[in-house]
Amino acid sequence: MFRVVLAAVLFVSVALAAEPPDPVTRAVGVQKAIHDAKELLAAGQASSAAAALEAQLPNADGSTEFLALLGRAYIAELKQLRVTATPDEKRIRAVTTRMAALGLSPEPAPQAPPIVPAAAKELAPSTSSAPSTALIAATDFFNKANFSAAAKLFEKAFQNKVELRPDQVTAWAYCRVKVAADQLNRSGADVAVAKAVEAEITEALALAPTHEGLQKAGAEVLAAARKRMGKTGPSPSTAPLPSGWEAVETANFRVRHQGTRSVAETVANAAEVKRTEIYSRWSGPPRGAWGTKCEIVLHPGAVGFTSATKLPAGATGLATVKLENGAVTERRIDLRADDPSTATDALPRELTHVILADLFPTQAPPKWAEVGMAVLSCSPEELGRYDRTATAAARTQDLFAVADLTALPGFPKAERVTGFYASAVTLVEYLVKLRGEKAFTTFLRDGQRYGIEAALRRNYDTDARKLDTAWRQTVLAGR
Fold it and tell me: Which terminus, N or C, of the chain has the lesser number of Cβ atoms within 10 Å?
């Protein structure tokens, strides 16, 4: 909790000669700045969030919500500035001055005893035969103890699908543990930082599961972070199995089954493979194992499935994800063991929904996009069925217009569900073929921030009307 005072002191020079806008325009501008700043903060762009709010400060009229959000942006930006490899001292001074004007203390809280993992020298990767300039530079920064810069370059190489040797992966894990430990030490009693550190350390340790020294050091950091969060003892274990159920476990999944172990093993192995494929397709390779495993429940048949999910008998899968403050607390997929296409269609489709919760933790993508992305993970035969349905729908005028589809807040009325699914799947398929999957993910994030029309112009150099014409022609042609 913090105080909000001296609002008039901030940036009094920004509102001078211009004609003041009318009250409605001012109010809209302030509310848009608040909305944009929240999105930017959720995306980790504290500096941009602060800039968006500063631009509307003369119109805020001392709004408590506005000034509280501005304070949050400054606090987050200051933390980011202090952990960069080359801190911008001028900006740090500016931010601390503005925090003081808001009644916020810019001084760092008393540090906890420093937590330092095992000696970095023991983990230094070799530069011999390094396959990329990013890895060469990462190793150089590592040897100079610039672990933040080294971590970013290891990450860059990994995202570019450069194969890292075991010693390089271990060095990357060390960098992430060290940087996270430093963040925890500097942040005083900040619970949000502790939560982020817990997630980061969990992922980092998954990179080097056999390195005893690093695992021990990481466990110490985890214990400190969890203590700050009010957690004591080990993390809660997975709930016990009901009577008559058995389980097959992998690094990221726990598959519950009743007498269908061979099917459960097939599903568990397929889930691990599909998890990597889906992450890599839409964003980049997964960064370590999930801290909270995804529970997959294999129901023997339609009766058990419909009883557990409340879905119609013809349904074959359901994904459930629970989030708390942007972090996933539960992942679950219900499937039918008697469905012959479980591993090729239902599993990857529902797993896509689970992974999208990781990629969009604060605001889910629109339903049309989520449906399309999920179905695109299915087999070519299943995707072909949607394509043929869309071609028929286009001929009977049952396809949604792009503007109407993208404006839907959720699912349409029951009588238009078939047209909705056909439209959603083929529109996502069309946009993916234009620029690729990762560009589509970027388009969705831009759509949340700037609106669909602006996102279309920014990412596809088109608008809804032109896109509708081109996409519809492709659907009618059966491509």
Answer: N
Say if residue 152's pLDDT is above 50: yes
Residue/partner pairs of 265-269 with CB below 8 Å, 24 or more apart:
266/343, 267/296, 267/298, 267/335, 267/342, 267/343, 267/347, 268/296
Alpha carbon of 13 to those of 8, 48, 51, 318: distances in Å? 11, 20, 15, 56
The β-bridge relationship of strands 246-249 and 327-336 is unpaired
Integer Cα distance of 255 and 226 in angstroms: 28
d(CA 386, CA 397) in angstroms, rounded, equals: 16
Give the angle 385-443-474 at the CA atoms, nearest 5°.
35
Instruction: Find, among 51, 33, 161, the residue nearest to 449 by Cα.
Output: 33
CA distance 282 to 345: 18
CA distance 254 to 292: 10
* Band (106; pLDDT cuts 50, 70, 90): low
- Do 258 and 300 form a contact (C-beta atoms < 8 A)? yes
The two tokens of residue 466 are 């032109």
pLDDT of 18 reads 38
Question: Higher-confidence residue: 326 or 258?
Answer: 258
CA distance 361 to 112: 30
Sheet order of strands, 294-299 included: 246-249, 253-257, 294-299, 327-336, 317-324
Calculate ∠ Cα 426-428-430, nearest 5°: 65
Residue 389 has pLDDT above 80, yes or no: yes
308-327 b/e (C-beta count within 10 Å ≥ 16 → b): ebeeeeebbbbbbbeeeeee
Determine the pLDDT at residue 156. 84
